[in-house]
Amino acid sequence: MLQLSKHSFSDNSAENTNDAKFSATPEQLREEGELCGRPRSLERKDGIAENKQPLTESQKFEQKHGVSVETKDGKYLYILKINGLDKELISTDANPKGIEKAEAELAKLKREKIADLEKIFKVSFSKDGEDIVKQWVQKDDCSWERGNMIKARSPNLAELSGIEASLYRAQPSQLTMDGSQGVKFYFLTQHYYKHDVALAYHIQQDKNYRQAIYFEPGANEGKPITEKDADRMGKHQLYSIEAVTHHELMHNAQQNLNWNTPKEKEKWARKLGWLPYEDPNTHETKWLFTGKKDELYRRDQDHCKDAFNWCACGKHGGLENEQGSGVSRVKDAKHFTLDQVRDLAAVKPSTRYFVNPLEMFAEGGMKYRINEKRRQELLEDSPRLYDAVKEHDQQELNTRYGKEPSGEPKYIRSPNGILVKNTAEARAEIQTFEEKIKKVEKKK
Q: Residue 9 — very low, low, confident or very high, per pLDDT cuts 50/70/90?
């Protein structure tokens, strides 16, 4: 999810920062595509929350540190499941003193990992007990107010490892607009929106006027660290910490390339089959999604407490029923399932999370960068989305790293997501990768 707030803070105090009034409510920002979409969990087939049992002491330890604890020959082995392998970090005696020793050793490893990531990528991380922002609370009348202060925690080893895997392929999208520093990763202990569970948010300005990413409580619990681990565990790619980080860093790339300006946002949205329209009642900018036969779909709700529905609509955004007649309420419109809209789309979304153009683009960008397998899936499933993401990615690389005197880019992104110098060999590798997939598609 992406939050692009429109307000400016009156001064640098934490109190004024958290009490500042936005020029638009979270509800308006969400529907305009500034605060992008609903929680990802609501868009997944398996998004229904499971009933959780109280954690045992060993489970609490594993959750705190992001490792698995196994017993072998009277020893505790502390395992990090990463890149499809079981990486043994340390071992201790299988007793309370051993656990105490492990606490200290794992804390040291975490500090070292944070220091490395801060040095290499210029990013930073929240600390235990740090103030973040006051929680958004939606009242019964659909208005918004600020609640209690949300506190942060520090990341664990699994989260740091997943973020590290993403950073190596997402760069330079981890940097802020001027390139002087990287984003800050916050790990929330309460939900950003009360009673509205998500995985993560991109924030245009945190309390220190810095681009940031918020990970929601529980977002990474039990999740694979990388995509290799997701494949190994048989989980959908949206679950890996690496994938979620890629998605949010794509939002940071959008901000760095001025998607918060209407003209730039509309340019990229149209490439993906999205059209802007103005709600006649609220005068808000909303989005229509086009189908293969130029039919139009709109995602909306009658009341803030209702579920969102995909509905048929006309060229001016008005809702239509089964007979094609105009209706005023979502409940009376012709409805489509999320999967139906995805199949009918002129530009097919790469995943089931496409609540607006910004989220659809971020999901495509995640697949484009994360590894060769996911990039192949993107090109096979949605060539037009692939082309748009590739164009956007190269624009970002050119903006950040420049071009040669000949006008050629200095860097390009290889099929496995790693940045490489723009050589004849590197270009040939990409061309071979793309042509092989396109030839297979033609034969079908």
A: very low
The average confidence (pLDDT) of the chain is 87
In this predicted model, what pLDDT tens digit does every residue of 368-380 receive, in sequence order?
A: 999 999 999 999 9
pLDDT tens string 105-163: 999 999 999 999 999 999 999 999 999 999 999 998 989 999 999 999 999 999 999 99
CA 172 from centroid of its chain's CA atoms: 16
- Within a 13 Å sphere around the CA of 250, how many CA atoms are in the beta-carbon half? 27
Question: Which long-range contacts link 263-270 to residues 24+ away (Cβ below 8 Å)?
Answer: 265/33, 265/357, 265/358, 268/357, 268/361, 268/388, 268/392, 269/33, 269/357, 269/358
Query: 409 exposed, middle or buried (CB, 10 Å; 0-12, 13-18, 19+)?
Result: middle
Q: How far from the centroid of its chain's Cα atoms is residue 408's Cα?
A: 31
Residue at token pair 């909303």 = 286
What three-state secondary structure class fits 244? helix
Let me know: does 369 contact 169? Beta carbons within 8 Å.
Answer: yes
Residues 6+ apart with CB under 8 A from 108: none
Tokens coding 309: 């529905």
- 91-130 exposure pattern, b = at least 16 Cβ within 10 A, e = fewer: bbebeeebbebbeebbeebbeebbeebeeebebbbbeeeb
Residue 438's φ and ψ, nearest 5 degrees, are -65, -35
Distance CA 183, CA 173 (A): 9
Domain ranges of the chain: 2-49+122-252, 57-119, 273-344, 357-443
Answer whether 205's CB lies under 8 Å from 130's CB. Answer: no
Rounded distance between C-alpha atoms, residue 390 and residue 358, angstroms: 15
Contacts of 405 (CB under 8 A, 6+ apart): none
pTM: 0.89
